[in-house]
Hints:
It is built from 15 helices and no strands. By secondary structure, it is mainly α.
Amino acid sequence: MRSKYLKILGLAAPIILANLSVPLLGAVDTVILGHLDNPIHLGAVAVGSQLITLVLWIFGFLRMGTTSLASSFYGAGDNSALHLLILRSLGLGIIFGLGVIAISPWVVPWTIDIIAGDSLVSQDALVYANIRIWSAPATLCNYAIAGWFIGRQNTVVIAVLLFAMNSLNIALDFIFIIAWGFESRGAAYASLISEYMGFAIAFGFLLKTQFREHWVPDWSLLLEPTAIKSLISINTQIMVRTFALVMTTTFFVAMSSRQGETALAANAILISLLYLTAYGLDGVANATEALVGKAFGKGDSNELKQVLEGSMHVAFVFALMSSITILFGQTQIIQLYTSLADVRALTSLYIPWVVALPLLSFWGFQYDGIFIGMGMGHQMMMSMLFAVLLIFFPVWWATQALGNHGLWLAMCSWYLGRSLSQSYLLKRKLNCLNLRV
Length: 437
């Protein structure tokens, strides 16, 4: 029993620490911009970064789909399939990344208009997004490489990669925003440079690990229709799921902006706190993906059962610690984020929702990891569509009179509804495998 938890923690710890550097970077952006004289800059980065998340994380299937297949190939000991998989995934990353840049002159202004409307933040948000969008090829290739290394249970590489990227980004934030006075533009340039530096580091690790001997692929195998169909099939299902997820969070930001710059700034702080928890939980889920995928690839039902039980316990402990930290440290946290009195007051009013969310959401993160490891892309998609269409939007519509409280209630209901539907779908799958968890 003890070795089960140690194995999960051994894989999860590096990626939890690395993942936490991602929202920490967002927190640094928020802290720096939150201490400027005008909340417009903070709101602009909240809107602009949400747009970038919307556009790029739609292609997050490159990370999750690659992990799903890589973990199965790794469990089966198929090194040739692993080699071809990363080449296919990188090819898709470059193609999609260039495509995003090509359509950005039409998509970016239109989406900013939807999210921010005619508010004062829209112009700054547009400038921010137009800079950040050029990181698309590097970001999508980083997704593919990260997924491949997670599938091979090499989470240390991901930790090094994310720490390097985000440390550079934080340093550039101070230079561009504080020293040079670039405001929201500075945050965008810092992220753009860091993404390409991250890709250079990631590709270096890949060359050292996978391409020591075989530089030129067998093109007939690389373009083999069945393998490509398998990659596209799971990626399409995960893409639909991710699109629904990102559209929901984008809608949340859009509704926040309709309540004014102060409410948008307060929600930006709360979302930053939520992401600190979410990325930590995602680290446990990433370890779960790799371990579940390997056990599933080997056909070892006993090992699979142990991973499912152990990873859920680890995730619960992390979620509980997160809620306790936010509950008892909220005053100091809010003071760190902003010096604007009205923003502080609104943030304090709504922070109980963020205290509750880790305990409501940790199931969903773990089920995502389990579904990816077991190749259950269709079930991931259906559970997300159920939560978005039948829970989030109906709850939001019914509670509009509650204002921002109604918006946060819809968010909490969405997380909980997704978890419950995933639990049902997983039990069905495990029953087919004659497993009781």
